[in-house]
Amino acid sequence: MIRRGNRRPSLKTPDDVMTLTEHLGELRVRIIRSALAVALFAVLVIAFYEPVLDFLRGPYIDLCRRRGEGYCGASVGADGEPELFALGPLEGLSARLRIGMWSGLILASPVILWQVWRFIVPALHSRERKLAVPFILSSVLLFLLGGFLAYITLEKALEFLIAWSGQDVTQAFRVTDYVNLVMMMIGAFGVGLQFPVLLVFMQLVGIVTPQQLLGGWRYALIIIVVLAAVITPSGDPVSLAALAIPMTVLFFVAVVIGRFMQRRQRKAAPAATP
Q1: pTM as predicted
Q2: Mind listing the pLDDT tens digit for each residue in 103-115?
Q3: DSSP label at residue 37
Q4: Can you list the alpha helix ranges (DSSP code H) found in 68-131?
Q5: Using an 8 Å Cβ cutoff, are 272 and 219 in contact?
Q6: Alpha-carbon distances of 267 from 69, 262, 263, 271, 272, rounded to whole Å
Q7: How many CB atoms lie within 10 A of CB 118?
């Protein structure tokens, strides 16, 4: 008879215990599933490379058109449209693979977040597990909002960077450098807007309280600005403000959500008492 391998343990409560080997096996499964999701979306995006690249070039094209002839220098082709340049035989392939990789990570983020959540679920109580869908849904929506903010502010960011390169510098953007900047901006904004989700989770498990967060709001603002400056790839003030302002607003939203959860817990406590 053929014996099947041991199934992964199913933990029902935080009091259940997994061995180190079981933890590593569970982690391996989650990583493999996440990697497969990234690879699947990456292949899909690579198959539609041209329209995706045109979409990413949108802010740069709009900037060159708005500022008029001569602003984008050598980047303007014979047809008058801004172009990106490949300075080596492998650069086109590299750009295609980078777009696929970055897009795969972004599009697979719901799957990755779900796998992360499923990995930490055994350490949570049933009340906390019920919030899985709201947490995943809010994380995905905030990531999309961050990517949207990055895309619509990219034109101003590029304008700032071009202006600071100097009047005697002729613009000619390499396709790999441009793709890296755009995708890193989208990723950075998406990750940055996960900040309130983390705060809500920390309040849920009792690491911090809404009162503590509200009492330290001045320090929180400093941390938000520093964090936005660090994770913003372009380093320009336009992108920094575009990320720091919504993070600040969402910080206070997270405090309000924490207060609401706190009140519900207090109301539920007497009812649970025999």
Answers
A1: 0.79
A2: 998 889 888 888 8
A3: H
A4: 91-107, 109-120, 126-129
A5: no
A6: 65, 9, 6, 7, 9
A7: 14
